């Protein structure tokens, strides 16, 4: 037997090598992320993603219940980025979305304060942009949209493309309970999402206990504007004990994402609104939260979800999507 073959039979050595490779791959991931981070350079892609983030922030504020005058700093930042953007960005969907969101924002401000100097100035700068700067700006209006309030039977009868296009992130919920039977069915359907080697490593943890719910609400990112009193809050988790080797370091997040997307579509099918809430916290914050929520030792949080019966006359961020040509290629 060769030396290599004999070494492979040493279980302790194999475990040590496997763990060393985990550290190596995570270090490579960290180096790659640091190099390409959103604030890392002047590429058109950096410009466009920053425009999209600012646009969504303003749209979300426009959809808040009893929205007040807000967003002056972000609106000014977005306007400046549109004015300074590269030719490539000016031909992108992001640019069109940014200009339309600012138009909606200035309309909103003027509806609250007729003689608002800043809103008028930004609107003037928008109108001064070159006419060919908004190539995708035909046939859509960014800002907010009416939340389609359909019962489960109405959603279920829609053609698939209308069903998918009709879903929006819902943050305003009516004071009506979500049926436990409906929730159980939606979870069962979400469990049909693809799972690596059918390990079924993903779980859904719903927290109705007031203390746990408040802890989660204050820790998750993106809970602004979510009706705390009338929503239900949950996290989608994965069990790190299911992961086999360094190449699977991101497998849990992938499986959790597939589960979460199937879940929110299932909720919509039953007439239940939902909003996925980013979990962008530090590892230390996650461990504190996991302890406070009594998660299992190997559980990691992938994403949060607020859900409930949608408010009948609520509004939602329009969240216009980019053009297909910008995300699709064949090589």
TrEMBL record:
What keywords tag this UniProt record? Oxidoreductase
Q: Which GO terms describe its molecular function?
A: oxidoreductase activity
Write down the superkingdom of origin.
Bacteria
Q: Which Pfam families match?
A: Nitroreductase
Keyword Repeat in annotation = no
Q: Which Gene3D superfamilies match?
A: NADH Oxidase
Q: Which residues form the Nitroreductase domain?
A: 164-220
Which family does the record assign? Belongs to the nitroreductase family.
What is this protein's name?
A: Nitroreductase domain-containing protein
Species per Swiss-Prot/TrEMBL record: Gordonia terrae
Q: What broad taxonomic lineage does this protein's source fall under?
A: Bacteria, Bacillati, Actinomycetota, Actinomycetes, Mycobacteriales
């Amino acid at each position: 037997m060769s030396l290599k073959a004999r070494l492979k039979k040493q279980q302790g050595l194999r475990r040590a090598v496997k763990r060393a490779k985990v550290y190596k791959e995570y270090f490579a991931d960290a180096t790659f992320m640091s190099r390409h981070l959103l604030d890392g350079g002047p590429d058109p892609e950096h410009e466009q993603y920053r425009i999209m983030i600012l646009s969504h922030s303003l749209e979300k504020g426009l959809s808040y219940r009893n929205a007040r005058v807000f967003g002056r700093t972000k609106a000014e930042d977005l306007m400046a980025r549109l004015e300074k953007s590269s030719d490539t960005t000016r031909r992108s969907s992001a640019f069109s979305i940014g200009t339309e969101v600012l138009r909606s924002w200035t309309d909103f401000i003027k509806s609250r304060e007729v003689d608002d100097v800043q809103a008028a100035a930004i609107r003037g700068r928008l109108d001064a942009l070159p006419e060919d700067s908004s190539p995708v700006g035909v046939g859509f209006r960014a800002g907010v949209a009416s939340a389609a309030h359909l019962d489960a039977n109405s959603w279920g009868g829609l053609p698939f493309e209308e069903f998918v296009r009709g879903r929006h992130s819902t943050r305003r919920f009516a004071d009506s309970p979500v049926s436990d039977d409906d929730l159980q069915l939606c979870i069962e359907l979400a469990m049909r999402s693809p799972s690596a080697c059918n390990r079924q490593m993903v779980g859904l943890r719903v927290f109705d206990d007031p203390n746990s719910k408040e802890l989660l609400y204050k820790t998750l990112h993106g809970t602004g504007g979510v009706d705390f009193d009338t929503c239900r809050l949950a996290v989608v988790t994965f069990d790190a004990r299911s992961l086999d080797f360094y190449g699977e370091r991101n497998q849990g997040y992938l499986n959790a994402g597939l589960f979460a997307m199937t879940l929110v579509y299932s909720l919509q099918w039953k007439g239940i609104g939902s909003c996925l809430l980013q979990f962008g916290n530090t590892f230390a914050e996650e461990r504190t939260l996991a302890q406070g929520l009594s998660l299992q030792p190997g559980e990691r949080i992938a994403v949060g979800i607020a859900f409930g019966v949608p408010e009948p006359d609520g509004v939602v961020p329009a969240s216009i999507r980019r053009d297909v040509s910008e995300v699709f290629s064949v090589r």
